[in-house]
Amino acid sequence: MAMQFGVFVPQFHIDFDGMRTRAMAAEDAGFDSFWLMDHLYSPGGKPTDSLESWTLLTALAGATSTIRLGHLVGCNPLRHPALLAKMAATVDNISGGRLELGLGWGSVEAEFDMFGIRVGSRRERAEALGETLAIFRKMCAGEPFDYDGRHFRLRGAYGLPVPVQRRIPIHIGGGGKQLTMPLVAEHADWWNCLGSARHRIDELAPLRGRARISAQYAVGFAHDIEQLPEVVAATARRMPEQSWGAPIVGTADMLIDQLNAERERGVELFVLRFHDFAEPETLERFGRDVIAQLS
Length: 295
Known about the structure:
It is built from eleven helices and twelve strands. It is an alpha/beta fold. Helix 2 packs parallel to helix 3 (81-95).
């Protein structure tokens, strides 16, 4: 089973030049994918600049040529499914077929309250995500269709142009048995296991249907053993274990051992958030000393 590597760079505290530089560095370093957050602000943090995700993704598509691009994960309640499908097809065309569609039903309650976005209960949001995914596939087909759901109704709708890819991969993130995993089994190409749910991956994996497994990891990448205490502290401070799960921390050889152990659990795509906000030098070194050794 080949290992794939993605880098997750939440776009707060980083301007556009910084995001573009990181995406280009990740591509040059051999990463397979580059991932953004999809929020209207920085959840849990102080007010700070935070670029809108789809606009930013479009710009990154123009600045790169091979790396795949997406969100972990997109917030479904922020957009009507027809608009989402139109945006996705457009970015897929601009990027030459490199879009990965990550979606979740929206779990940050404070965001909806802050911006006055009307949403239903958690169960209703999960139902709406299921309808969005059904509508998305119909829109991507390019043929007129009607849709009658509990949350959305469309008449004679169609999506043109169609995406470049025959099938845009869908990633559904989460770890809930009742609301998320049934959606994964029905709709997803990839199940993205949150870091906070990774300790339950063996329990949840049988519920994913045919979806492949990706997982999120907080990563502390040390130059050498002497730097390790500093990296451990920075990783714990910036990516708390209760949110990100147990981090993988160490030198290149140590990380290789930990990643191989995770591969044995069925993970194919490793989405990494680095302790130093994915500085280009770190991405280059990880590509040379870790990715190249695992290829």
